[in-house]
Amino acid sequence: MPNKNSAKKALRQTKKRTVWNTERKTAIKKAIKETLRAEKKEDKAKLAKVAQKVLDKAAKRGVIKKKAASRKLSRLMKIVNA
After folding, report:
1. Contact 34/70 with Cβ under 8 angstroms?
2. pTM for the full model?
C-alpha cells in the first residue's frame, strides 16, 4: 500500500482508469463480433459504422493507439466489403 497522499491518489486514479479502459476494450470486441456475425449486408454496414465510432472514440481517449484502431477497422471493412 502507498504511504504518501499523492501515491494513494495515483492508485485510486489507476483503478478507475483500468475499469473504464476495460469497458471500452470490451465494447470494441463486442462491436467487431456483432458486425462479423450479421447476416445481411445492410446490417453489416450499419454495425460497421458503430464499430468505427467505438474504435475512433477509444483511440481518441488513449485506450488503444490510433494506428491500432485504424488497423482493426481496415481489417473489419475488408471482411465486410468482401
Report:
1. no
2. 0.84
- Backbone φ/ψ region at 65: left (φ over 0), alpha (ψ -120 to 50), beta: beta
Homologous superfamily of the 5-81 domain (CATH):
Ribosomal protein S20 (1.20.58.110)
CA quadruple 24, 30, 35, 36: dihedral sign: positive
Asked whether the beta carbons of 69 and 55 are under 8 A apart, the reply is: yes
DSSP class of residue 63 equals S
Residue 69 in grid coordinates: 484502431
pLDDT in tens, the chain (82 residues): 899 999 999 999 999 999 999 999 999 999 999 999 998 988 999 999 999 999 999 999 999 999 999 999 999 999 999 8
Contacts of 20 (CB under 8 A, 6+ apart): 63
**Cα 69 to Cα 54: distance, rounded to the nearest angstrom:** 9
